[in-house]
Amino acid sequence: MKKVMVKSKKPLPASTVILVRDDCGPLQVYLVARSTQASFMPGNYVFPGGKVDPADRNAAYWIAAADLDHRKIIKRFGDTLQLDELVSFCITAVRETFEEVGVFLAQSPKGDYHFPEEQTAARLKGGLKKGWLRDAVEQGGWRLSFSRLFAWSHWITPKAMPLRFDTRFFVASIPPDQECSPDRNEISRGIWVKPMDALARNAAGEIPLSPPTLAILHFFRNCATVREVLQKRNRQCWGATQEPKLIFLSERPLIVMPWDPFYDYLDGREKGGKVLKWLAPGESFSRLLYHDGLWKPVKMGNGK
User: Fold this and answer.
1) Which range marks the domain in which residue 264 is found?
2) What is the signed CA dihedral for 268, 269, 274, 279, rounded to 10 degrees?
3) 3-class SS at 134?
4) In terms of domains, do 294 and 219 share one?
5) What is the pLDDT of residue 162?
6) What's the DSSP call for residue 242?
């Protein structure tokens, strides 16, 4: 990671979907590898998602196409955001999940989840036209499955990052009879993996995880089923906003999580202390140091 210090920009609204399943045994999550040419977290493994597009807005239009009305949407996702914002995050979640990995969180007029093969083929060939979601609603009669989405957490990219996002993370179980297929454009590959295995493979350098992905997988590590995940989600919808800090130790980036005891006192350079030890996968952490191309949990000492 190159050291880039620029003036903070307003973070762009975005949605991310943590796809989960347990029909093949213990809980698994779906991770995608971002292209090495990507402008944000290149080469890192993340959950599918992307920024909110202008077409994702217009609450009145999209609510008419969803399986929840405005009251249920507010009850499900909270009243701290305007309805138009809530709906736009949900639409982005549905749209990006299909565009990136081919999973469509919607039901056909017949009540199934089989999206037309021609649309799926077009996506893989890079020919999915702009406005495809409106066409699916207006011409195909598809009903968007907001009811499959569950609010999980709210993350904001550190102020020192050149590209910032204000991201709502959702959890969703993959619909029956659907399979994930990376688009091979923004996403180079995808894998189903158990949370603890993903943490171990990050430590081994096999699948480099982004900081929010690593933190969320750490929380999931003791969950055996989708039901357990949903039972542990924050009862206050998104929960407290997580905005890590990015500082530098001898030119190496250090992420300090909001739950770090010295979070409020750390800023800038050379104030994070020294590395005492690298933490093993599954050990609780509040700091991640970028080392040999990986974000790794560390315990710090000798200073704040």
Assistant:
1) 244-304
2) 50
3) helix
4) no
5) 85
6) B
